[in-house]
Amino acid sequence: MANTIHADHAHDHDHDHKPHGLKRWLFATNHKDIGTMYLVFALVMFFMGGAMALVIRAELFQPGLQFVDPQFFNSMTTVHALLMIFGGVMPAWTGLANWMIPMQVGAPDMALPRLNNFSFWILPFAFTLLLLTFVVPGGAPAGGWTLYPPLVLQMGDGFPLMIFAIHLMGASSILGAINVIVTIMNMRAPGMGLLNMPLFCWTWLITAYLLIAVMPVLAGAVTMLLTDHFFGTSFFSAAGGGDPVMFQHIFWFFGHPEVYILILPAFGIVSEIIPAFSRKPLFGYETMVYASASIAFLSFIVWAHHMFTVGMPLAGQLFFMLSTMLIAVPTGVKVFNWCATMWKGSITFETPMLFAIAFLFLFTIGGFSGLMLAVVPADFQYHDTYFVVAHFHYVLVPGAVFAIMAGVYYWLPKWTGRMYDEKLGKAHFWCSTIGVNVLFFPQHFLGLAGMPRRIPDYSTQFADWNMVSSVGAFIFGFSQLLFVAVVWKAARSGAPAPQRPWEGAHGLEWELPTPAPYHSWETPPPPSVIARGAEH
Amino acid sequence: MAERMGSEGTAAGQDDRDRARRVRRNAIVLGLVALAFYVGFILMAVTGVRG
Is A306 a catalytic residue? Predict the structure, then answer.
């Protein structure tokens, strides 16, 4: 059968009409090219956002003001968050979706290839606008990524640049999400039912619906900020009859589902990697799908847990506390299923599996601290402290970012046709895992001791753990250079990869030759291939 | 034989056209949903809807 597939795709190689030079990338409509551009863009943003994080940690290495003035420090925290969320994690997921979804559902490309090109090319302009704020009078945004009025309205000339940048990022995400939904709903190979799809496609489908529901809400909120600033409206100005707390409600109606936009695709990737390296089918495939959908639904009714301290009726506090705790149920189902998949499996610990297991442990720590924050009276103590910073960084770094790395290591042989250096990959894993824990775990202690977030200076009682945290930041940050080296080395001179480099891996992407041809699945895969690929 | 191939080709062409129509319709509907959320939340703030 493998021979048949090879023969089918020999045809693809013959007609591998790749455009060359700059035009290939500028006018790209090929899902693999666009996926690569998204991933490279995300990597650049990760390094820029990471450099800002290192400025923050260098300043916080010891008490007192050392390197930057407080206004610039606040810009660092704000722009670091915007770059990492909208420029790093989200484009990385879109890059992986572009590469993998058509290959996994047996489609030749995304359903709307030109829209795909447009979605990508919006991004460099959006982030150029955002970064331009550093050189205009008044400087870059410094009021936190949550853009709360009235503070954000005090920003200088960079304000409209920032608002327009956020609009563009939102538009890019919405167009990307439309493309994913339309591709999955219309381009699946005949015979591939929704419940035959790999979990990465499922979690991305759910993520795409979340994006369409909430990115316009963010766009609406920032448009109202814009009109409050320039056109005399008073949406969020108490003096004019508006309500600044209304902004918080609208922002977090976007903001909480956004958290799941960042993490759901990670669940999908981990659900592919753990079975592959445990050499067992995924335990409870359907419950994984329903758990993902439940998490997505619940994400719409928990937003006010981010703002307990603004004051709200007891009924509101109880509702948002309990609905938040309810998320632990489908999340627990997932963690249980991943553990059950590994149970009595024939496990090997290649780099993708190491990152997936680290995800499992460390994301769960982030989940537990989230549960602590959901408890209203406790949240009154933890709110706006480093405990919150520790919580969401555990969710986003060893959660989302580790899953992205796991995905890259897992699929790199299929993309490039070459294996990465396993020793270097493992070195990258251990440096990252040790670094990330030294960086973020002490922040729990700092938060519990009362250190507020978003401050450039602090009381001497917090000095020791801040020093440890900063050392961890530099270990973690510089370890990522190793990641670039591993990918570069693999792409340039790695050993040739077989068609299915991981013996336990299932899915249509592994039925394609390695490296995946420029145009894959020009004719839909036959039912026997779909059946073999769908062995979850 | 040629006739059968021709009719298969036509059927395949029809399938492709149907799929292209479905793709376009889905994309437009999703775009409208996004627009409705955008306008809806602004209207909600304008009219002062409170919990």
Answer: yes
Of A389, A419, A386, A400, nearest to A487 by C-alpha is: A419
CA distance linking residue A393 with residue A311, whole number of Å: 26
Which sign does the torsion angle of CA A181, A184, A187, A190 carry? negative
- A87–chain B nearest CA distance, Å: 21
With CB atoms and an 8 Å threshold, state whether A112 touches B23: yes
> HEC profile for A126-158?
HHHHHHHHHHCCCCCCCCCCCCCCCHHHHCCCH
Cβ–Cβ under 8 Å, residues A384 and A483: no
* Domain-located, residue A40: yes
Write down the ipTM of this complex.
0.78
The whole-number pLDDT of residue B49 equals 60
**pLDDT in the model for residue A9:** 46
* A289 domain-assigned: yes
Q: Quick one: tokens of A28?
A: 């790209």
Helix boundaries (H) for A133-243: 158-186, 199-230
Catalytic residue among A9, A31, A80, A506: A80
pLDDT score recorded for residue A108: 94
- A-B interface: how many C-beta pairs under 8 angstroms? 65
pLDDT of residue A4: 42
Q: Across the interface, do A182 and B31 touch by the CB < 8 Å criterion?
A: no
Structural domain that includes position A341? 2-11+34-533
Give average pLDDT by consecutive 10-residue segment, chain A, 536 residues. 42 61 92 98 98 98 96 97 98 98 96 96 97 96 96 95 97 97 95 93 98 96 96 92 93 97 98 97 96 97 96 95 96 97 97 98 97 96 97 97 98 97 98 98 98 96 98 98 97 95 94 93 89 69
Round to the nearest angstrom and report the end-to-end CA distance of chain B: 69
A482 part of a folded domain? yes
Contact between A528 and A1 under an 8 Å Cβ cutoff? The reply is: yes
Number of domains comprising chain A: 1
CA torsion sign for A273, A276, A278, A284 is positive
Determine the residue of chain B that is closest to A179 in CA distance: B27
So where are chain B's domains? Answer: 1-51
Per the residue annotation, which of A32, A306, A383, A506 is the catalytic one?
A: A306
- What CATH number is given to the structural domain containing A238? 1.20.210.10
Tokens for A451, please give them. 């250190």
Our answer to whether residue A173 is catalytic in this structure is yes
Which of A118, A166, A178, A247 would best serve as a mutation to test chain B binding (most B beta carbons within 10 A)? A178
Q: Look at residue A188 and tell me if it is in a domain.
A: yes
Burial class (CB in 10 A: 0-12, 13-18, 19+), A112: buried
Q: Between chains, do B37 and A216 touch, taking CB under 8 Å as contact?
A: yes
- Picking from A35, A211, A236, the residue whose alpha carbon sits closest to that of residue A151 is A236
| Contact assignment for A214 to B37 by CB distance below 8 Å | yes
pLDDT of residue B45: 80
**Beta-carbon separation of A181 and B30 below 8 A:** yes
Instruction: Give counts: helices (H), strands (E), chain A.
Output: 19, 0
Select the more confidently predicted residue: A232 or B7. Answer: A232
